[in-house]
Amino acid sequence: MKRFIEESAHFLKERGFEAPEIGIILGTGLGQFVDKVEIISSVSYNHIPNFPTATVEFHTGKLIYGNLGGKKVIVMQGRFHIYEGYTLQDVSYPVRVMRELGISKLLISNAAGAINLNFKKGEIMLIDDHINLQGGSPLAFKGVGLLGTRFTDMSAPYDAEMGEILKEIAAENNITLHEGVYTSVVGPQLETRAEYRYLKIIGTDTVGMSTVPEVIVANHLDLPVAAVSVITDECDPENLAPVDIQDIMDAAAKAEPNMVLLFTKLIEKL
């Protein structure tokens, strides 16, 4: 894999991706963040050697490099999921490439359902911890020890310093920012009532289909990471109605300005 990572990074360096400081992965329906970036270069995923290709219609599939908040950033506009048929290594591969290019911090957003019914649609949760229900690990492959410590510590997977800054920014700007546990499932089907009850029992606050593989790999690479869930639906098993994907997209769009403000101000302060 190391050779593939180096090939991808070399290709991007030739296209102007020089000395980035911060990597950003945008979740479903959260692609407008790039409007804040002074773009220097952008490359479609399908042009980057060894890169997966985005297949979800809500994800545009571009790697964007530019200036934001006085920093050089790389933004993944569109991410990969195992429900698209990718492996966990595929899903987390861009994190390895961004680290090879030089990023020293990683920010992640996702769209998620609220298992904690104190959280409401359109609000945001700072991820403090996670539960991996995706049935595997992005580190479970031969030769992983050549890229980092095989037995990666996950006692504190999310960077406390960036988390505190995000909470300060939220307070200063009257943004409701919850804090809690995100659980990642395979998908793409939504959960049953029994599954929502189970997720609550095991300590889940929000549930989605992404983020955890990228966070595991970030920890494998000693890369500090902060992540937030934008809450797009409320998952009450006692009052469960069929999910309308358009409603989820609308909720993401409503909450997105607050997510953009949190990340933009954080980048300025780093």
TrEMBL record:
Alphabetized SUPFAM superfamilies for the sequence: Purine and uridine phosphorylases (SSF53167)
InterPro entries in the record: Nucleoside_phosphorylase_d (IPR000845), Nucleoside_phosphorylase_sf (IPR035994), Purine_phosphorylase (IPR011268)
Enzyme class: transferase
Keyword Glycosyltransferase: yes
Keyword Transferase: yes
The EC number(s) this enzyme carries: 2.4.2.1
Pathway membership, UniProt: Purine metabolism; purine nucleoside salvage
Top-rank lineage group of the source organism: Bacteria
GO terms, biological process: nucleoside metabolic process
Domain Nucleoside phosphorylase: 21-267
Cellular component GO terms held in the UniProt record: cytoplasm
Gene3D superfamilies in UniProt: Nucleoside phosphorylase domain
Record key words, sorted: Glycosyltransferase, Transferase
GO molecular function: purine-nucleoside phosphorylase activity
Family according to the record: Belongs to the PNP/MTAP phosphorylase family.
Function: The purine nucleoside phosphorylases catalyze the phosphorolytic breakdown of the N-glycosidic bond in the beta-(deoxy)ribonucleoside molecules, with the formation of the corresponding free purine bases and pentose-1-phosphate.
Protein name (database record): Purine nucleoside phosphorylase
Record organism: Leeuwenhoekiella nanhaiensis
